Amino acid sequence: MATIEALERDRLALLKEVIGSETVDTAKVAKRDAIAKDLASFTAMDPLQEPTKVVRSLEEARRLERRGAPIRLDLHMNSISTLSADVCALSMLHELSLVANTLERLPPSLANCRKLQSLQLGANRLSALPDLSALDGLLHVGLSYNEVDDARLPALVSSLPRATLRSLDLSGNRLCDAAAAMGALQPLAALRSLALQANPLGLRAGYRPSLLALAGALQLSSFDGTVIEVGEAAAPAAAAAAPAPAAEQPSGEEAAAAEA
After folding, report:
1. CA-CA distance, 223 to 211, in Å (whole number)?
2. Which pTM does this prediction carry?
3. 28-35 long-range CB contacts below 8 Å, 24 or more apart?
4. Sheet harboring 93-97: ordered strands across?
5. What is the mean pLDDT of each run of 10 residues along the chain (260 residues)?
6. Are 45 and 1 in contact (CB under 8 A)?
7. Contact yes or no for 92/115 (Cβ under 8 A)
């Protein structure tokens, strides 16, 4: 099943296309509605650890909290500009979706959610995160279509749990320097799934092989939603490291002609 970030990317692309046209194509509207329905199917997704339904309000989350049950809280498309302190006080919060809101920052108190495993933040206005490095259960962070740029990426990485984070979606941001981006990501030792598509750096020819060649110590198994084939990362790296062929030496006649 597609991730909520992937569904949101499709929805945003379609909305931009529809809004940018003078007339509304009914087929496009139907597709947009289908995407919205798929986004709602997040309720049926298997959680990372324990089975529980998705709740869509703080009141429902509090009821689960009182029962000591794991919480999957979906607050996507709620025009949220400031995350409530009450959300950050949910000690049983396992998954949080804040996709498609207007968040420019998150409170440091989010680090109090020590059981957090999945944080979905796609389609906001974020360029940084609070220090979440102590959340050693955090496995996935989705930051697609936000405002992360080359200068802010190192600080963002330092705010994440380096030894345990397994999945990071940075697609659709403002990353331009491929070498700098892959260098900044190196500390994420447990990272296995990475998405960087739809950044300016993705416009370069040979984007995928060049990024995989720069991955270095990252032991990725998935890049931009596609499984990395055996040897795929090694091939461009080996080609880049291979010595240039020696220049062909001119023959005696050619050398004499050149001297003449």
Report:
1. 9
2. 0.74
3. 35/7, 35/10, 35/11
4. 54-55, 71-74, 93-97, 118-120, 140-142, 167-169, 193-195, 222-223, 226-227
5. 57 49 49 48 44 88 95 96 97 97 98 97 97 97 97 98 97 96 97 96 94 93 92 56 46 48
6. yes
7. yes
